[in-house]
Amino acid sequence: MAAIMASKGHRVIGVDYNETFVADLKAGRAPVEEPDLQDLIHQAQGNLDATTRYDDAIARSTATFIIVPTPSVENGEFTNDYVIQTLEAIGQALRNKTEDHLVVVTSTVMPGSSSQTLIPVLEQASGRRIGEGLGYCYSPEFIALGSVVHDLLNPDFILMGESDPAAGDWLESIYKSVCDNDPPIARMALVNAELTKISVNAYVTMKISFANMLADVCDRLPGANVDEVTAGLGLDRRIGRHYLKGAMAFGGPCFPRDNRAFGVVADRIGARADLPRSSDLLNQYQSQRMNDIVGRLAPSGCTVAVLGLSYKPHTYVIEESASLRLIEDLHGNGHKVMAHDPMALDNAREALGDQAEYTADIADALAEASVVILATPWPQYRDIDPSLLAGKKVIDCWRMLDDSEYAGHCELHHLGAGILA
Question: For the chain, is the Cβ count within 10 Å smaller at the N or the C terminus?
Fold first, then answer.
């Protein structure tokens, strides 16, 4: 976000306690890997600075965006601890300035957090009142790792909860100067924006789980193919085609936890949340489903190659990755596992340890394997040399490989197309 705003002409100061991140940004280096980020930082030179000091950043700015973690606790609720600490630091810095200031929380929080907790913290720390030269908005982003830059520049819509119309007007003017696609802007009360954020992901995971349920049915129904079924479903304008791809379980840092948080909210107020809970149960079932398929195709103790470890392509993030759960199950069932991923090998090695062997070379991963699982749809897996798969059983979870090109070389099984029929 900082690089994008700076590339659009805004003067931006990033704040982080991580001195390495700050040093990287000041030197014009991207502190994390993300497509197009380094190019944006180059474009932003002269407008982008970084510091570890809140007072310095607040003194040189008129609007502050809070993008800190809100980790999930055991029951699925988000904790606001880091947001509160940040608001306290911002509030203390605001005591030293009289100019108007806008504070925007973009971290995902539980519905009710802004009015019940976060605004009181900011007002107490700053000694100022919301609506009296101090604005507050809640505006979470809808982004996916691997396409963050594109998603921020071209959002489907902007979600804005506002403390008052003036704060909303201020934030809307910022977004209009940044976005490339002139997105619709949904302005609403703070609690409604907080609920909308987790509702979007709860609804999307419901679609994913429905598609995965269909894939399970198609695996057991002779002649069925989940892609043909979902293609027909997606033509109905009431449904749409997005996220109707029956394959592996959903994962990552947002979908699973937002889904569970919705259930916590419902429980707390005496409402029912059967749909998100069912989505979560179906998602957990995908591990057993994959075990059933592998158990049918893979002799006990054989070597299995798992291609793709990140929760999705174009990222090194492995949080709640279906591939990692699969490897744990394979190892527990006595299989030797060869693991490959273009970006996530180091993270997977740290998480799984000796439950697998890790290689950056696809040929090496496949050499001794009798069963190959295409678990994450990285584009490069579409172009695997067919000779590397010769004589192997291949489980193509995303139906990436063309039968006409590969069937003569290997025993190719497409997930969602009759594997168990």
Answer: C
DSSP annotation of 375 reads -
Q: For the domain that residue 407 is a member of, what is the CATH number?
A: 3.40.50.720
Report how far residue 139's alpha carbon sits from residue 105's, in angstroms, rounded to the nearest whole number.
Answer: 6
Same domain assignment for residues 183 and 305:
no
Residues 6+ apart with CB under 8 A from 281: none
**Nearest to residue 314, comparing CAs of 339, 341, 333, 334?**
341
Range of the domain at 181: 53-188
Beta pairing, strands 158-162 & 134-138: antiparallel
CA atoms of 23 and 29, how far apart (whole Å):
8
Active site includes 179? no
For residues 77 and 183, membership in a common domain is answered with yes
Residue 408 corresponds to which tokens in the numbers above? 């003569």
Concatenate the DSSP letters of all residues of 14-31 into one string: EE-S-HHHHHHHHTT--S
State how far the Cα of 16 lies from the Cα of 37, in Å rounded to an integer.
18
**CA-to-CA distance for 410 and 421, rounded, in angstroms?**
19
Beta bridge partners of 337: 304
Residues 183 and 296 in one domain: no
Residues 305 and 182 in one domain: no
Measured CA to CA, the distance from residue 201 to residue 97 in angstroms comes to 38
Closest CA to 356 of 324, 380, 395: 324
Residue 43 forms part of a structural domain: no
User: Per the structure, how many domains does the chain have?
Assistant: 2
Residue 102 lies in a domain: yes
Looking at residue 111, the DSSP 8-state letter turns out to be T
Determine if residue 330 is left, alpha or beta; phi over 0 gives left, psi from -120 to 50 gives alpha, anything else beta: alpha
Dist CA 149 CA 154 (whole Å): 8
Instruction: Point out the domain boundary residue: 188, 203, 226.
Output: 188
Is there a domain that residue 264 lies in? no
Select from 188, 208, 223 the last residue of a domain: 188
pLDDT tens by residue, 261-310: 999 999 999 999 999 999 999 999 999 999 889 989 988 889 999 999 99
Report residue 74 as tokens.
């055991």
My answer on whether 409 and 297 are in the same domain is yes
Please state the rounded mean pLDDT for residues 66-82: 96
pLDDT in tens, 161-183: 999 999 999 999 999 999 999 99
Distance between CA atoms of 395 and 414, rounded to whole angstroms?
A: 6
Select which of 254, 302, 397, 410 is catalytic.
254
Q: Does residue 226 sit within a domain? A: no
